[in-house]
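Here is one chain, start to finish.
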Amino acid sequence: MRAYRTGICPECQKKLKPLFVTEPRCVQCGKPLHVSEKEYCYDCAEGQHYFDAGSAVWVHKEPVSNSIYQFKYHNQRAFAKEYAKVLVGQFEKEIRRWNPDVLIPVPLHKKRKKKRGYNQAELLAAEIGRLMNLPVETDLVVRTKNTKPQKNQGHRGRKQNLKQAFGLKYRFRKGCTIVVVDDIYTTGNTIDAVSFLLKKAGAEKVYFLTISIGQGY
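Its structure:
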């Protein structure tokens, strides 16, 4: 996916069109469903999540997956503006209905952030916040454990990898609504770990927004 003077280039827009997440989708995580009679994807039906609901723009396939890879690892920070524009364009009504008090990006460990130079989720949250005039807290949730990349872990390994991986730097007002922002939703373990922490500390509702999401069934 390439940047263009006025946004995403026309060639990539054609490739992206069939990757937009549309109905039917899981009422909790937002993954696309192949059967319209179902309300939940397999993961949400069989497991427990701590977030209330969430949405993603695209299914995590090419060219989206490569674009996010460039965004995360090859200093393509400008992509954040384009991603945020599409996210807000797709989900502004939904986000307004959630009525969030604050947006919180999934944090990177300080060592990883220093090496990379930035946190892609932080850049994305900042752009969404700017477009929707919503506050963003970048240092409320901290990553206390320098975890291995989730993509290299199995299902059980992902959960274990994130055990006690996050902490709160300070208290926040109980009963608030929070939207967690990240780049990709796969199994939901990262969003869950952050949501569990926030709910335990007093958040009433926790939602999430991501650029892409895995395929549901």
